[in-house]
Amino acid sequence: LPGLHVFALAFALEVSVGKTNTVMALNNSNVLLPCTFTTCIGFQDLVFTWYFNSTEMIYHGKIKNKASEPFLVGRNPRVEFVGSTTKKDNNISILLKNVDFSDAGKYTCHVRNPKEKNAQHNATIFLTVVQKMVEADNTVTLIIVGVVGGLIGLLILFMLIKRIVLFIIKKTQDGKKECLVSSSGNDNTENGLAGSKAEQKAPPK
């Protein structure tokens, strides 16, 4: 059906910014805004645009085909294209230079592919700008790891002591058994000693 054909084509183009859509950057630093696109049937004269807060265009580029890199149509002076489309992942990432607090907000990577009946798709990144990176407080984690590690250590020590004690007890018991065997195994019949088997013989008739 024609309707299903158009529906399938509309979902052939996909745009992605990776596993997470949040990025944090230091004030006055450069930050990478990642974006890649995929298409099932290839592309021709593909157009991609980066927007800040949905309205402000900060980068606009076109790609003739898979064998060519994008050419610039327009951009913000602080934005640099750092991707590549002749490679497998169709990377259309940009680098935002010297970010400040006013750059915090929503960045949208928008792609339109004329070869797919002008199918369009986009993905969004949220940028946060901070004065300094704050290290996560791992005190509670360290305490938990320390306690668990200590308990495991005590358990191992207890098991080791138990094995040593059991080994000593076994050796002591083995020593006693050897003494009992040697004392009860004396055969005094030949010596004619008291309590020997010789005294237990019946007198001859």
From TrEMBL:
Residues 2-126 form the Ig-like domain. GO terms for molecular function: sodium channel regulator activity; transmembrane transporter binding. One of its GO terms (biological process) is cardiac muscle cell action potential involved in contraction. Residues 178-205 are annotated as: Disordered. Keywords: Disulfide bond, Glycoprotein, Immunoglobulin domain, Ion channel, Ion transport, Membrane, Signal, Transmembrane, Transmembrane helix, Transport. Residues 1-18 form the signal peptide. The keyword Coiled coil does not apply. The keyword Signal applies. PANTHER family: MYELIN P0 RELATED, SODIUM CHANNEL SUBUNIT BETA-4. This is Sodium channel subunit beta-4. It comes from Nestor notabilis. The lineage of its organism: Eukaryota, Metazoa, Chordata, Craniata, Vertebrata.
